[in-house]
Design goal:
The chain is mainly α. It has helices at 6-21, 26-44, 48-65, 74-101, 107-114, 121-136, 146-154, 156-159, 167-170, 182-215, 222-236.
Length: 237
């Protein structure tokens, strides 16, 4: 269920309608968290455990960073928590290829190479790191509610494709007692439509010359490399 599929828009419409039928506060947060975890499970299946691990490390790490007992060792503990939050990304993205380049060919290396990259792992990992850094620098207070931290990292419109949000900006929005506004709804639909056109028609066309370049760069001329990288920059945008 990608963000451009009709099924996603049915899902989004259902969540949207339920959201405004519920009372502000806890009921809405429960709905959004359940919807976010359902969405991520549909995308990644058992890899949702990676998201749960990063969320737990981020939540408890942020609380412990402000513990008076760790005041003298905050920097060391901060490094430990950052490493713990980064560990899944390092394992899935870099450990297997690094060991292979080093000449390792054990069953463990082959197993690591066969693991698929969890969808959105870079987005929720760097969102977690941004939150931990903000807590360490005392830009924001550590969030005492596990549900809010879980929702911040798993929020379904962001978890699979970003952008990477700051906790200080997104978490307070989960408690806003907003009422339905036709003006805001039409503005949001206009932005979604513009994004869909850019993704399906512009980015889709830009993928045609860039995909062969990355699949077999040795078969392309230098000028194709140059224009391929330019097209790829706009494709990502």
């Amino acid at each position: 269920m990608s963000l451009s599929e009709p099924l996603y828009f049915l899902f989004l419409t259902g969540v949207f309608l339920l959201y405004y039928l519920l009372e502000p506060g806890l009921p809405r947060r429960v709905l959004l968290l359940c919807a976010s975890y359902f969405f991520y499970f549909e995308l990644s299946k058992f890899y949702i455990l990676v998201l749960v691990f990063v969320t737990a490390a981020t939540y408890w790490g942020a609380l412990l960073l402000r513990s008076p007992r760790l005041e003298q060792r905050r920097f060391l503990f901060f490094g430990l928590i950052i490493t713990l939050a980064l560990m899944p990304l390092l394992i899935f993205k870099y450990l297997g290829p690094s060991l292979e380049l080093a000449g390792e060919s054990s069953p463990l290396v082959q197993g690591l190479r066969s693991l698929a990259m969890p969808i959105g792992i870079s987005f929720f990992t760097f969102a977690a790191l941004g939150y931990l850094i903000d807590v360490y620098l005392e830009v924001v207070e550590p969030e005492p509610d596990l549900m809010r931290v879980s929702l911040f990292l798993a929020f379904f419109p962001l978890v699979s494709a970003g952008p990477i949000e700051r906790a200080g900006r997104l978490i307070p929005q989960f408690d806003l007692a907003t009422r339905f506004s036709a003006e805001r709804a039409l503005s949001a639909l206009r932005m979604i439509l513009i994004g869909l056109v850019m993704k399906l028609f512009i980015a889709g066309d830009l993928a045609i010359p860039t995909d062969p370049l990355f699949a077999a760069p040795g078969n392309c001329l230098p000028i194709e490399h140059l224009f391929g990288m330019i097209f790829y920059a706009f494709l990502l945008y």
